[in-house]
Amino acid sequence: MIHAAFIVAPAGRDNLIAATTRAADRNEAGRIGLPGGKVDPGESARDAAIREAAEEGWAVYGVEAEPYHVAEVEGRMVAWFLADMAIAREEFPEQGRIEPIAATWYQVAASGYGNDAAMAAVPAGFIAHVGAAGTCWDEERA
Q1: Cα–Cα distance between 66 and 46 in angstroms, integer?
Q2: For residue 132, how far is the Cα from the chain centroid?
């Protein structure tokens, strides 16, 4: 059973992907993560990822039907879905608590929440689709 689902999608140019700032009221101020969250009862993991991304300020397009990566994170099963693109929304339910931002692959992978393993599992074809993401990774780590 999948408990949470996240989206990995390019956000504009410059090899950036959709991310969100984390909520200060959860003691996560200053951190970033992928858009996504809890799967509600009766909801598919894919639908949850799309809904959560929208709540966190992203309109996502071309979300694949199946997750590209599933892993146990802190005792719960989590799924990550690839999407063709993400566009920041002007208004969204979580506005004021969190904000959509475009981030490098390294920033997201290093932010925690189990994203490091999911980012490492991103298929090479998707990286080529986004751009030279490996360059972003290497530059940020150097």
Answers
A1: 7
A2: 18
Q: Can you tell me the distance from the alpha carbon of 78 to that of 8, in angstroms, rounded to the nearest whole number?
A: 13
* Element containing residue 3 per DSSP (H, E): strand 2-8
List CB contacts of 71: < 8 A, sequence separation 6 or more: 77, 78, 114, 117, 118
Residue 133 token pair: 């993401």
pLDDT digit string, tens, across residues 16-71: 889 988 777 766 666 788 899 999 999 999 999 999 999 999 999 999 999 988 88
What is the chain's percent helix, strand, coil content, to nearest 5?
Answer: 30, 30, 40
Q: Cα–Cα distance between 136 and 39 in angstroms, integer?
A: 31
